[in-house]
Amino acid sequence: MAERARINGAARAAATAALLSLALAACQTAGGPSYGGYGGSPSATPQTPQYGTNAPAQGFENMTAGSEEDFMLNVGRRVYFTAGSAELDDTSKVTLDQQADWLNRYPGWLVKVQGFADDPGNAENNRQVSQARADAVMGYLAARGVAANRMWSKGYGRDRLVRDCPEDKCRSQNRRVISNLRDEFDDPSTPSSSG
Fold it and tell me: Tens of pLDDT along 3-22?
């Protein structure tokens, strides 16, 4: 009986080892271990996506330095504000410092600075505070060396809400400024002005 249990235990151990070996083989390709969510080397062309913590964001697999995708994913294009305020907090300044560094490294990009609001008050108050927020961001970027003639700002008030909800915690997501990269000015006759 003990001999039979020993044989069954050895068989189970061998079966487990075989299954682990198969599982490891499935996680690798002929080129080696899986990197960044795709088989092969870190620079391999994606064939069949693997999903994991290091998988590239879908649609950004072939991202290059200096691209709009690089700016969005590696720098961040949004900063947020408290109700009724256009004052930049420390968190916003960290993001804007990163934006300024990136924009100074890639001077071919123009920037449309778009302000938004979801604050107490009427539509005109929201438009004014959203414009003040956009102007604050544009001024901060200019102070960090981004040429003012590469940027322009526009306040949209409550247009283009991210979330439409009554709770202030939810509405605070609408109190934002987005730095959008552009290839050309919206209106070439008025660079670096509001509009």
Answer: 554 555 555 655 555 544 54
CATH class of 68-182: alpha beta
Q: How far is CA 133 from the centre of its chain?
A: 20
Reported pTM = 0.66
Q: Could you give the C-alpha distances from 26 to 17, 18, 32, 172, in angstroms and in order?
A: 14, 12, 11, 46
CA dist 142 and 86 (Å) reads 16
- Residue 84 phi/psi, 5-degree rounding, is 70, 10
Q: How many Cα atoms sit within 13 Å of 36 on the Cβ side?
A: 15
Under 8 Å CB-to-CB from 179, ≥6 apart: which residues? 77, 78, 99, 111, 112, 113, 114, 137, 141
**Domain limits, CATH 3.30.1330.60, in the chain:** 68-182
